[in-house]
Structure formats: C-alpha cells, structure tokens
Amino acid sequence: MKRRDVLTGAGALALAGCAGPQESAGPDGAAETFEWKMVTTWPPGFPGMQTGVMRMVEQIETASGGRLKIKVYAGGELVPPLEVFDTVSRGTVEMGHGAAYYWKGKSEAAQFFTTIPFGMTVLEMNGWLYEGGGLDLWRELYANFNLVPFPAGNTGVQMGGWFNREINSIADLKGLRMRIPGIGGEALARAGGTPVTLPASELFTSLQTGVIDASEWVGPYNDQSLGLQETARYYYSPGWHEPGPTLELIVNSDALAQLPDDLRMILQLAAATLNETMMAEYTARNADALAAIEENPDIELRRFPDDVIRELRQYVDEIIAELVARDPQAARINTSFQDWRQKLARWTALSEKAYLDTRSL
Ligand code: CA
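# calcium ion complex -> structure
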C-alpha cells in the first residue's frame, strides 16, 4: 500500500504504523528535520483558538525533539483569514487551522464537519467523526483539494448572541439585522431578518452604533474579550445554530506524505490533544466569564422561547433539504450525519440529558 493511499483513504485515523519501516535520516545520517509554515483564520493571540494552535505547535516541536518545527502566521499575517484553505491546498504552506464551514464556497458539504444548526454536541460530533465514519467522509471530501483534515478543537455549545431587543416571538426576528453566519443566517433570513457577515474586529462598533441589532460570536469567554457585554442588553441562549463546532487542522497531502511515521503520529496526537484541551479551556473560561456577566446589572440573560426555536428548526430542515437536493456529496454526508445524530441523541437522552435533568430536581 502506497503511503499516499494510507494518508488519504478510508480509515486514515490510523495514520502511522501502516506504511512499514521508514528511514528518516538525512544524507549525513542525522535525523531529518522539517521546517513548516502554518496559517490560521484567527486574529493574532485570539484566546482559545489561536492560543490553542500555538500550544499545539510547541507540543509538536518538543515531542519531535525539534525535528518538526512549525512557524505559525495568524489571520492576515501571511494571507487573509479566508485564504487559509487555498494556501494549504496549493502547498504554499504545509498546515492550516480554521473551520470547515468557512469553505462552503468550495463545497457546501464541508459545513457538516464543523456544525449545522440543531446538529450534534461536542461529544456526539467526536463520536461521529472518530467512531461513526464521519472523519473518513471528511478525508474523502478534502482529498479532492489535496488536504488531510484532523478534528482539532471545539468551543462546545455557543451562545445565541447579543440582542438590543427582546425576542418573544418569531415576529421579533422580522427586520432584525444580525451578524450570524452560515445556515443559521439563512434561517434568520427566512424569518424575515437580515443576516450580516462581519469579522470579529467590527462586531463591537457595529453593535454599539446600531449598524446591526444583534450579533452572535462564540460564548462568554470570547464575547467578553470583544467587549460585547457593553453593546447590548439581552444575552440569549442557547446557540441553536452552533451546538458544538469542530475546528480543523488541515495538512497538505504531499507534505504529510513526506513525514516519517513517528512525526506523522506526533502530528495526529497533537491535533487530538488540541481537540480535547481547547474544549477544556472553553468550559472553564466560559464559566468564569459567565459569572462576571451575571453580576452585571445592565445585562439580562434570556432563553429563546420554545416557539421561536421550533420555527427556526423548521426553516433549517427546509434549507438542508434544499442543500442535499443540489449537492450529491452533501446528500451522502448528510445521510451519515443524520443517522448518527438520531442514534446518538437516543443515548444522549439517557445519559447526559437525563443526568443534567437531575440537577434541577
Ligand atoms: Ca459563532
């Protein structure tokens, strides 16, 4: 089996150990070293995401004894954030970090590998990706772009966002100008609102000056770092539109194929570690930031009314039905996604949800 096939084919989670013994010595007999570049979609120093990536590359360098060194460029430092996919695909740099749903212009099917509204929680996403064939489907899709994806981070359930008006019925979404991306934004449009795309750097001013009426971002930890708590009175939960977004490490297929087995294994383990530690960071820091928000008398925490959620869910179902009707690859991925969501939801109901319900007894 050729190395390339091992890397891009099905079952690629078991990346190392399949290709037999591998010489990794340079011409002088010393271990070969690799100096790679990496681009990300995140602002420099962005808490949770960019800081997580920096932690990962340090771990890779240490674990490899300095044989795999990676220089990281945050969004805009080498290429604009939304050119990460193309830059790694072309092989201009070897690695990237971002979210698959940013690349829906390349393939609408990519969105399923980050999150879709009313989709899976972080535990369910990991179950589907690692054990339910989701990662194989992801690798198959990205092989078309000469990329190998790895799950590498998650924020957990996001918040519904900051609103300067109360949402008591679906009619309150009419005319609402809100920063909300992707399928969630399409659902808002069907409810009569106007979804707006804005980068993180413009959220604070846009909300404060009334250019937009509402904005989602991530959750208390990241929202507070942008100062969003000073821009709107109502902070709504839950993030129906992003229930457990998986972030991605993408590696150029040719570059990955050149690494010896041990370095490929280190890279795979580092990505899996980031998938875990980023979630831990968001869990702890969101709780800290929430405590501060709850003490702020100018902010009211609200939950979306059930009727609003039901209507939005109906719009999302329509949007996904239309998406799979026009994209056969998305249809295949959606079938796997929905089968697993249904199966996992039954287990979640008896485990996580049943347990969480006991807390309010
Ligand atoms: Ca978000």
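# post-check
The longest helix spans residues 261-295.
The CA atoms of residues 128 and 134 lie 5 Å apart.
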